[in-house]
Amino acid sequence: MNRKELEPENSPSAAFGERLRRLRDERGWTQDELGEHMGYSGTHISAVETGRRSPTARFSQSADKAFGTGDAFDRQGRAVRNTALLEGFPEYVPHELRAAEIRLFELGIVPGLLQTQEYAAAITAGAVRRGAITEQQAEERLELLARRQASLERTPPPMVFVVMDESCLMRPVGGPGIMARQLDRLTEFAELPSTVLQVAPYSLGERRSFDLPINLLTLADRSHIAYAESAQRGHLVRETTFVVSALTAYHQLQAEALSQTASVAMIEQLRKGTP
Q: Are the C-beta atoms of 208 and 269 separated by less than 8 Å?
């Protein structure tokens, strides 16, 4: 039987799942047998082990009771639930790190893979001030972003297609100096041989294909994965009708958006207005 390889360093949920599987294996239990001890189905156990479902407080406490681990799972479960990452994103990241092609659409802020350290730090600092995340969670978010950005430098590099809504350029973040360096970073990104950068102008109106950010991955075996976010959660979707239709919509958006040349010209024009 093929088992999904678990990478506990990727996120708190991955670490929780790896520990659950390891202790289960040590006792020689199947997922169904552990489920009987905990009052859950084997399918539910599988989903938590692989990060597809977050452990609730009840689930974590049941795991402690089944394994006799005191409150270890309960404490680890709280770390999972308090993470700065939306549900679904920890599972998405390992696929992104190995993807052959990455397609991004973003609204409001520059996509994370293209952010400078200063810009990213300003975004997370704002979230801390609002009370949306803690300082520790901000550090976790920035560390993961650095890993994701570093993965673009692998050999061979992935092809990265980015369409940004014009709002990403117009929203000031961190002050003029930070915005100036961020705009410079965008033009540098557009010059790379493995990238395409386009701006979806406001004038697209109702012709814009997406109303929410979306990430689309093409893996080495040419299969596809989509990751989309709402305000409260993320959704990872594998090869389905939704993914195919999302790819079609993305290609339509690329056709409607400004060309890379026109997009860079817009960015450079904005850059002239920053110090």
A: no
CB 164 within 8 A of CB 198: yes
CA atoms within 13 A on the CB side of 167: 13
Write out pLDDT tens, residues 15-47: 899 999 999 999 999 999 999 999 999 999 998
Tell me how far apart the alpha carbons of residues 252 and 84 are, in angstroms, rounded to a whole number. 33
State how far the Cα of 201 lies from the Cα of 168, in Å rounded to an integer.
10
Listed by start position, the domains of the chain span 8-81, 89-114+154-271
Q: Which amino acid is at 125?
A: A
CATH topology assigned to domain 89-114+154-271? Endonuclease; Chain A (3.30.870)
CATH of domain 8-81: 1.10.260.40
CA triple 128-134-135, angle to 5 deg:
80
pLDDT digits (tens, 9 = 90+) for 154-167: 999 999 999 999 99
Q: 31: burial class by Cβ within 10 Å (0-12, 13-18, 19+)?
A: buried
